[in-house]
Amino acid sequence: MDERRESRIPRTGIPGIGIGALAGSKPLESSKTVNAPTTGAIDRKRKAADASGDAAPEAKRPTFSAGQGARPTRSNTTTGAAAGRTSSLQQATSTRTGPSQANPGSELGPIAEETWDDIRDKTGQGVDEVLNKKLSFPKGTKPERKVEAFVPLVKELKALGRHLHNSTQRLELDAEQWKRHSAELAAQAEVERQQWNAKQEEVEKQMKEIREMLEQQEEQNNRLETEVKEGQVRLAAKETELASLQQQLEGVQGELERTAKQLEERESKIKEMEDVVRTGQKYSTTLQSYNTSLQADLTAEKTRRDEVQRAKDELQGQAAELGGKVRSLEQLLAYEREQVGKLREERESATRDLAVLRADLDNTRQERERAMADSAKMKEDLDRLRTAGGKSLETLEALSNDKATMEAQLSMQQKLIASMREELASAKENRAMADATAETRGAQISELKAQVETLQGSLADAERRVYEGELIRRKLHNIIQDLKGNIRVYCRVRPVSAAEAADAGHDSEMALDFPTSGDLLGRGLTVVAPGNLSGQAAQKHNFAFDRVFSPGTTQDMVFDEISELVQSALDGHKVCIFAYGQTGSGKTFTMLGNREQPGVIPRAMQQIFQSGQKLAAQDWHFNMQASMLEIYNEEIRDLLSRKKDDGKKHQVTHDTNGVTTVSDMTVVDVNRPEAVDQLLAQAMDKRSVGCTALNEQSSRSHMVFVMRIEGHNRTTDVKVSGVLNLIDLAGSERVKESGATGQRLKEAQAINKSLSALGDVIMAIANKQEHVPFRNSKLTYLLQPCLGGDSKTLMFLNVAPTREFAHESLCSLRFGSKVNACEINQPKKNVVVPRG
Ligand SMILES: Nc1ncnc2c1ncn2[C@@H]1O[C@H](COP(=O)(O)OP(=O)(O)OP(=O)(O)O)[C@@H](O)[C@H]1O
């Protein structure tokens, strides 16, 4: 643009005009001579050059400036407009100068004398030389001589004067011309400048439009490039698919050829086959009847289970009642024991009193005997005295007084003995009564104990029967599940947290209800979705799953329900257990738990190692390998890698047997549960966890724990190979409500996107669509064999209990129902049995 502007300016600019003026203004050069008297020699050289017709020196002349003349350039002489202007200037000049142009010889006008140019040519003198010329005469020179000598000088001065006069006139004329032309040129330049500005504006506008077009073009190009890349990726995928299809086709063709050969052979055996078919039909009928009987068994079992359950309930009621009775009897027994104890103490003290009384009685007896002996002796003495006739009366009275006192003492002691005997008799009676009561009570207690024992026995029996019934039910349920090929769904509702319960502003009431009896006991739940401001009333929604765990269910009880599924990994099945639910609903608690309440993963490890050890007795040997990964923002990361971020790009591939491989993963041999605990701790350190509005320790990624189990029985040479995939998904989250920004927002968007891709896959499978979009996210592609293959798959549907999350719970439960309706291929056991 600027270049063009520059290139245009010289063509229409002043220098071009200057040339025209110069071309027609030779007299200007004369004026130069006036202003530069020292240039006479140069002027001469110039004239000579002009005469030889060489135009080049013209270009080297000094630049035109006021009072000095103009410098022509070659390019300017070619300009048409300038040439036009030049010729008009020449004309004007010739008009003004008249004869000076027509006859250079008469340039000095009518004076027929030598011109200054002639004089200068002849003498080579400059103006200054002429003006400064001084004439000196020798003394005595005659005046006439002096006058004669002055004549040429005067001539020169005259010529110079004329020349100067003409030059001045021409200069004035030229100056006027120049002024006019400058005005014209300025006007023209102004017009051109305006045109130029208009053009420039136009060009700028065009440039802007072009730039916009370019930007649009670039955007389109980028879009096209992205589309092309996507197309290439799709193409590559299609090519891979095509290649595998071709392989399959080749295989099928080979198979066809083989089949054609076999067909010939088989035709000969067709009759034999028909027999087999007939047998098969019979067998099928038998199987059908077996199936019917199995169904009948199942129904009977269910009825039995219900009966047993009822009996159990009754027994539990009775047991509770009896327990109450036993407790009151035990209290009575304790009271009676206490009474018996007291009576025993009383009896002992009575026995002690009796012994004292007996001792007293013996003493009294001895004293009485002694007193009687004394009395007899006294009687003898009295008789002796009477017979001797001469004893004093005083001694006699004293002796009779002593005798009366002693007899009174004796009668008192006899009374005391009698009362003591009575007391003893009553104490004996009391003891006998207490002994009898204690015996009766003891008999009653033993009888009650026997009753309690009997009841406990029948309760244990009933419980055992219930447990056995439950085991059978579970087995039958599992068989039916396997036959149906459905993904199992176990719904787990977490308890109301302490924070929720404490927060008065929280809508912390339970929004879920569980049936307490009937068919849906342990399998159903009801959500009460609250009404809204637009007047919609609260609504109840009923759901049923394979199992529903209410808030009180412990980790132990939950694992008990899935232990068989875990076990089947050891039998050579592919097993996949994953936890799905909104953020903070208890997925990580269910899958990993904590030190006090370990979850599914640590318990599964414990069980697998214990079962492995038990099976070692039957010569089974197991080799187990673990790996752990997370999908964070649509990128797979190795959680067992030593480096925090190894920067590796991990690719997921599935082989034709549905075995999934993730490239460049750290795989660790494990042979004891503690090793797995260490790996889990290491992985949990690396896993992306953050604090969100709904969960302090929220998982920001999907975590996948994979355990490969290779078993070999050295006696039978049977080999099994199973896989256990245990997955803790990141929680869905309503971005608007969580108020997430920055990295949290990006994470939440990636999580929601992959969960929505999981939803699309589930919908496609449930609706039996031909195309299932497994490739729409890393998660669905990784889970492809679990969702669309032949593995045993179970989903934990984790749900928060409160009204605050009723809407999310409803969405999760609807999703769970869809998952439950998904039919996958029948689970396949990966077992290699040696031939022969
Ligand atoms: N069954 C339960 N019993 C007791 N506490 C529970 C139970 N389920 C969850 N919790 C507690 O609730 C909180 C949230 O649980 P958890 O972190 O497992 O949720 P989450 O679904 O994994 O969330 P996120 O998707 O955000 O990772 C934790 O403090 C956890 O201990």
How would you sum up this structure, described in words?
- Among the domains are: about 115-285; about 485-820, Kinesin (3-Layer(aba) Sandwich).
- It starts with a helix and ends with a strand.
- Strand 14 and strand 15 (about 720-730) form a beta hairpin.
- The strands form four sheets. Strands 1, 5, 6, 7, 8, 11, 14, 15, 16 and 17 form a ten-stranded mixed sheet that branches. The protein has a three-stranded antiparallel sheet with strand order 2-3-4, with helices on one face.
- The longest helix is centred in the N-terminal third of the chain and has 126 residues, at about 145-270.
- It has helices spanning about 1-10, 15-25, 25-35, 40-50, 55-60, 75, 80-95, 100, 115-125, 125-130, 145-270, 270-390, 395-485, 500, 555-570, 585-590, 600-615, 675-685, 735-740, 740-765, 780-790, 805-820, and strands at about 490-495, 510-515, 525-530, 540-545, 545-550, 575-580, 620-630, 635-640, 650-655, 660, 670, 690, 700, 700-715, 720-730, 790-800, 830.
- The chain is an alpha+beta fold and about 850 residues long.
- The protein binds adenosine-5'-triphosphate.
- Adenosine-5'-triphosphate binds near residues 697 and 798.
Describe the secondary structure blueprint for this structure.
Blueprint: H1 2-12, H2 14-23, H3 26-35, H4 40-51, H5 56-60, H6 74-77, H7 80-97, H8 99-102, H9 116-123, H10 127-131, H11 143-268, H12 270-388, H13 393-484, E1 488-493, H14 498-502, E2 512-513, E3 524-529, E4 539-544, E5 547-549, H15 555-570, E6 574-581, H16 587-591, H17 600-616, E7 620-632, E8 635-638, E9 652-654, E10 660-662, E11 668-670, H18 673-686, E12 689-690, E13 698-699, E14 702-713, E15 719-728, H19 735-738, H20 742-766, H21 778-788, E16 792-799, H22 806-820, E17 831-832
Parallel strand pairs: 1-5, 1-16, 6-15, 6-16
Antiparallel strand pairs: 2-3, 3-4, 7-8, 7-11, 7-14, 9-10, 12-13, 14-15, 15-17
Helix pairs in contact: 2-7, 3-11, 7-11, 12-13, 15-17, 20-21
The structure holds adenosine-5'-triphosphate.
The site of adenosine-5'-triphosphate has 18 residues, from helix 16 and strand 13.
